[in-house]
Design brief:
161 residues; 4 helices; mainly alpha; 2 strands; de novo design (two linked rop proteins); 57% helix
């Protein structure tokens, strides 16, 4: 399956079918799904879904990079994109502790910003088309915005604070 952050993508998580950011439901910024359903795991977070779809897009895209970039640019791009997802998942599990929650979100934010730097390098090296780079950069801007919003308003996300 080709992952494209600009397209509707179906993702299977633990047997439950959900859809990507243009799919059947969207997650609100206040801890519930668009239909009032509670967010139960990090997999339900729109920011996680955006980051996961972008990471899969990057995985597919970097398959076409030159072999000499395998252990440099390809590795950095894949690592930082996956790290965004991992830090969001960790933040979700640490939401009982406001400071730990915010710290992990800031780590995810840093990784997303790093990801944008690697997009710039891939563009300058001619490994990705301008439009492809622009779309990815915009997706990571969206991810960054959601992470900043969560960081600025942890009371909407944390438990018992």
């Amino acid at each position: 399956m080709q992952y494209d952050v600009a397209a509707k993508v179906v993702v299977q998580h633990g047997g439950d079918e959900t859809r990507g950011h243009k799919g059947t439901w969207r997650l609100g910024d206040m801890g519930t799904r668009g239909h009032g359903e509670k967010i139960r795991t990090h997999l339900d977070l729109e920011v996680y879904q955006l980051a996961f779809d972008a990471a899969m897009n990057i995985f597919e895209m970097t398959k076409d990079f030159p072999k000499e970039e395998t252990y440099s640019l390809v590795d950095q791009m894949r690592r930082s994109s996956r790290s965004v997802c991992a830090n969001i998942a960790e933040a979700w599990r640490k939401r009982r502790y406001k400071a730990a929650f915010v710290s992990k979100l800031k780590d995810a934010e840093s990784e997303a910003a790093e990801r944008q730097v690697w997009i710039e390098f891939a563009l300058k090296c001619g490994y990705i088309a301008s439009e492809q780079g622009r779309r990815l950069y915009i997706v990571y801007d969206r991810i960054l915005g959601k992470l900043v919003n969560m960081t600025l308003h942890p009371e909407n996300w944390t438990i018992g604070s």
